Amino acid sequence: MTRRVLLLIPTLDRSGAEKQLCLLAEGLPRDEFEVGVCALTRGGPLEERLAKAGVPTTVIGKRWKFDPMAFWRLRQFVGQWRPELIHAWMFAANTYGFAAARRCGIPHFLVGQRCVDPWKSRLQLAVDRRLAVCADRVVVNSEGVRDFYVGHGAPADRVCVIPNGVRIPEPPIGTRRQLLAELQLPETAKLVGLVGRLWPQKRVKDAIWAADLLKVIRDDVHLLVIGDGPERDRLRRFRDLCEIQDRVHFLGHRNDVPRLLPHFDVLWSSSGYEGQSNVILEAMAAGVPVVATDIPGTRELVVAGETGFLVPVGDRAALTKWTHRLLNDSALASRMAAAGRARAQAEFSVERMVERHVELYRAVLE
Asked: Do the beta carbons of residue 295 and residue 211 sit within 8 Å?
């Protein structure tokens, strides 16, 4: 007999948590679990991927933070689909999902927390504490996220750490020369990539500043900023004030990051806080050395001096220094790339991530 599990998340955009949910939904054994996905606010590009995997998807269409009609639609859907377990991902899905589960008599509920969230208000943290006490488990993706929520009152024995998973990619389609020609960059260009939403948390301004420092000491480095968000125009203005339009390129939102990533010489992550970065894992799996900020979550992925380098948050000089060293020392870069790929494959495989969820679901349901 299969057990019905509903995965509930705010959107199906192509972002970190959403990618992990798709990997999980695709990987859960169908002879044991009947899985469905529900997007609370909107769908997105990952709907097509789930459809190809045969995973039914429902979009509720929440429009405001407090939306009684969306809650009514969610309650109707949950009452009709009748899962045995709801696994929610992130704050809105946690709150709406738990209330709907209670109203519909769903026996098991898992709270999902995916990031260190210093932006949350006292009220939101109080809600998180209440949900942590009432839910079967709180599922987090790193020890850093676990420490954050335990520190804010979640019972330690209810918090379960399941790290993200990543697949080792196929060899890239197309050559580096073709990519450089497409981007209208010289064949001698060194590519540094930064991928993520243009959001204050990501501290992209630090990366632009570091690119300006690199321009002083070498003339071949180009920073590719991939992503979009509310900080885009402000960051473009800052780049223009620094007069490095020729070295910092905003590529916007791209659907072909897996095609671009293997051609990066270095990946940067300048974030002030994270949960567990998908793009760092993807870079490691693609054999790209990483220079990233030394923050919880990231330091569980990057082994400093072995798979990349870690720098203090906001230390643009250190970001510049270690990137310059990697670009100057091809043997070091190759060793770190190989070590990162091996670590991603051994410690953070999709299969291992799925199996940990299967064990958790079995324990909760039984």
From this structure: no
Question: Would you give the distance in Å from CA 4 to the centre of its chain?
Answer: 26
pLDDT digits (tens, 9 = 90+) for 196-233: 999 999 999 999 999 999 999 999 999 999 999 999 99
Going from the C-alpha of 1 to that of each of 30, 32, 34, 258, 359, the distances in angstroms are 10, 7, 10, 38, 17
CB 302 within 8 Å of CB 266:
no
Torsions phi, psi for 115 (to 5 deg): -155, 150
> Which domains does the chain carry?
3-165+349-365 (3.40.50.2000), 176-347 (3.40.50.2000)
Cα angle: 202, vertex 208, 214; to 5 degrees: 130
Instruction: Read off the pLDDT of residues 150-163 as tens digits, 9 standing for 90 and up.
Output: 999 999 999 999 99
**Cβ atoms of 89 and 120 closer than 8 Å:** no
Give the separation between CA 267 and CA 200, rounded to whole angstroms. Answer: 19
3-state class (DSSP) for residue 276:
coil
Contact partners, residue 200, CB within 8 Å, separation at least 6: 231, 272
Instruction: Specify whether the CB–CB gap between 348 and 164 falls below 8 A.
Output: yes
Distance of alpha carbon 84 from alpha carbon 107, whole angstroms? 6
